[in-house]
C-alpha cells in the first residue's frame, strides 16, 4: 500500500489539506498527517484539524510521497522548519514524489527541488522568489518528474486526483473521480 505523509502547520489551507487527505484515502492510500508541534492545528479559515501524529515521530518512517498543503502562514511555517527541508531532500534523493500546492511550492524551492523544473503555485508566490532556472506554468497541476505542484484551493481536487494516479494508477484515479460526480 502506498504511504503519504502530509505535514500540517498552523495556518495551513484547510480546503487543500482536507481534499488531499480525503481523496487519497478514498483511493486506499495510507495517509499520515503529522503536526509540526503537539496539539490541534487551526487552519487559515479557522477549521481545526487533529493530526494523526507529531512530525518528530515519523521522521524515520518510509513514505512514497510527501505532500505540502499551502495557505498562509502555514506554508511559511513549513518553509522555516529544517525537518521539512531535510525530508524533502531525502525524498528527492530516493526518487520519491514530493508535491506542494498554493504557497507551498516555495518550500520545494527552498529545498532545491525546483532547479531546472517546471512548476506552478498560487499566483505570485514563485515569481517573488525570482527563480531563473524554474519554468513557471499557469496550469492547474504541473508534473515534472517526481515533483508535482498545483495552484490553490480551486485546483485541490485536480491535484489530489493527479497524486492518486501517480501513486496507484489511472484506474484508481478514475474510480475515485467517478464517485465524486464532478460533471
From TrEMBL:
Keyword Cell membrane: no
Gene3D superfamilies to which the protein is assigned, alphabetical: 3.40.50.880
One Pfam family in the UniProt entry: DJ-1_PfpI
Top-rank lineage group of the source organism: Bacteria
InterPro entries recorded: C56_PfpI-like, Class_I_gatase-like, DJ-1, DJ-1/PfpI, Prot/Nucl_acid_deglycase
Record's keyword terms, sorted: Repeat
GO cellular component labels: cytoplasm
DJ-1/PfpI domain location: 3-165
PROSITE patterns tied to this protein: PEPTIDASE_C56_PFPI
Family statement drawn from the similarity comment of this UniProt entry: Belongs to the peptidase C56 family.
UniProt-recorded name of the protein: 4-methyl-5(Beta-hydroxyethyl)-thiazole monophosphate synthesis protein
Phylogenetic lineage: Bacteria, Pseudomonadati, Pseudomonadota, Gammaproteobacteria, Chromatiales
Amino acid at each position: 500500500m502506498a504511504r503519504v505523509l502530509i505535514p500540517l502547520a498552523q495556518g495551513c489551507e484547510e480546503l487543500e489539506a482536507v481534499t488531499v487527505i480525503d481523496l487519497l484515502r478514498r483511493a486506499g492510500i495510507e495517509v499520515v498527517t503529522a503536526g509540526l508541534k503537539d496539539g490541534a492545528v487551526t487552519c487559515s479559515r479557522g477549521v481545526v484539524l487533529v493530526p494523526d501524529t507529531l512530525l518528530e515521530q515519523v521522521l524515520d518512517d518510509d513514505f512514497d510521497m510527501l505532500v505540502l498543503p499551502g495557505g498562509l502562514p502555514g506554508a511559511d511555517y513549513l518553509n522555516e522548519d529544517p525537518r521539512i527541508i531535510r525530508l524533502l531532500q531525502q525524498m528527492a534523493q530516493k526518487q520519491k514524489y514530493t508535491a506542494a500546492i498554493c504557497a507551498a511550492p516555495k518550500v520545494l524551492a527552498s529545498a532545491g527541488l525546483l532547479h531546472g523544473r517546471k512548476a506552478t503555485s498560487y499566483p505570485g508566490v514563485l515569481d517573488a522568489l525570482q527563480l531563473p532556472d524554474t519554468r513557471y506554468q499557469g496550469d492547474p497541476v504541473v508534473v515534472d518528474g517526481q515533483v508535482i505542484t498545483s495552484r490553490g484551493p480551486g485546483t485541490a481536487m485536480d491535484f489530489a486526483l493527479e497524486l492518486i494516479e501517480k501513486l496507484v494508477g489511472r484506474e484508481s484515479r478514475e474510480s475515485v473521480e467517478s464517485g465524486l460526480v464532478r460533471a
